[in-house]
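=== RUN LOG ===
request id: a7f3
mode: sequence -> structure
chains: 1
length: 510
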Amino acid sequence: MEQWVITALAAVSIGSIAFFVGREVHRRQTREATASAEKTLTEARLDAQRILQRAEEESRATAEALRERELAALEHRKLEAATVDERLAQREGTLEQRAANLAQREDILLEKERTLEEFRLEVELEREEARTELERLAGFDSRAAKAELLEKAGDEARRDAMVLVRDLELKAREEADRRARRILATTVQRLAAEVVSESTVSVVPLPADEMKGRIIGRDGRNIRTFESVTGVNLIVDDTPEAVSVSTFDPVRREIARVTLERLVEDGRIHPASIEEAYEKARAEVEQNVRDAGEWALLEVGLTRMHSELITLLGRLKYRTSYGQNVLNHLIESAHVAGMLAAEMGIDPTESKRAAFLHDVGKAVSHEVGGSHALIGAEIARRFGEDAAVVHAIEAHHNEVEPRTLTAVLVQAADAVSAARPGARREALESYVRRLEQLEEIARSFGGVERVFAMQAGREIRVAVDPGEVDDLGAADLARRIARRFEEDLQYPGHIEVTVIREYRARDFAR
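=== RESULT ===
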């Protein structure tokens, strides 16, 4: 027991001793670390002080160098400023010297000017005295002499100018003629067109000669009805298997031809079928008219044209002018005008359009009085054509004076198309015009519904309204129309006037 207690006490003593020894060692290490840290801090402070001192010394050195440099630059600027001041002073002295010299020269020039003015006055006075003396001796006024001299000089100048203008006009006219001939020759060489072959008779073939009897009908009823409805002459002669349709109006002739072909094809020929076939043929020809207008527009290469204007142009397919088809003439004129414009180096579109429309008035000229040029211009204006195109249409026969190059080109194109060999036949146009006048005169009387010129103008058939004209009035109307023909027209032989008064009663069974 005691041994154990002694051992325990010994162990406690040893532990206490070790604790105190350890604490003392820790304190000594702490003191050494603190001393080392203080030494390091002191050395750092010393290093910082040395760095700061070195930086201050370098800053002072740099500032001193900059100050010395600025002082040197300031001294240099002062020297330059002194030099500039010296130069300015020298220039100022030079300018003052020049000003003095200029003032002296100005005084000299003024003196010379006064001297020259005095000398000029003296010379002018002497010249005036000499002229007065010469005029007194010669007995002639200098002003009159001057006027005479100027007049002679003016006369000579005018004469020379007139000679020069005449020579220039002759050369210009020769050059213009030469160029015009070249352009027209080039254009005509490029033009390829058919020779006119229009006529006033259409031949309708028949499947057999016995068809002629059906066409004539019992006591001529069918042929009279056909001629009355269509307004043409139906010629049934000894020509085998053919009959002829004759009239001056090509549209009417075409409708009659189509009507007769339909009747021959159908085989049933009587007054009712004739009227039915006539209405169908007229509708077909009207469609052909529209197609012809659109084809012509496509042929010329134009666009944007009013539909009514296209229809009027299509009607010209069945009209002739001096034997020349008017629609073909318009197409031909448009091509010629376009080529002329191209040869002259201008845009051909406007010239082609004006030339294509220049005879559109002929589509209605037999229905409306007046020149076809003015009528065509009014139609074109109504359907929205340009003012330049309208002017070219109204001026192509000089009813209006041409004011534009387009109008002149249209005139030239019209003349080229009409004057080429084989283009027209004068006799046919006169014949057609005479028949138109016959119908116009007969149509001018009251109560007249339809008028047809028959037998090449030797017979006029007039259909009247039975409600307005009675039997006695029909005879009087025939006499008055015949007297009007004798007064207003010239014609070979005689003209038979036939007034037809037909009353039809119609009702429908329902």
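=== NOTES ===
The two ends are 163 Å apart (CA to CA).
The chain has three domains: 141-190, 201-429, 430-510.
=== END ===
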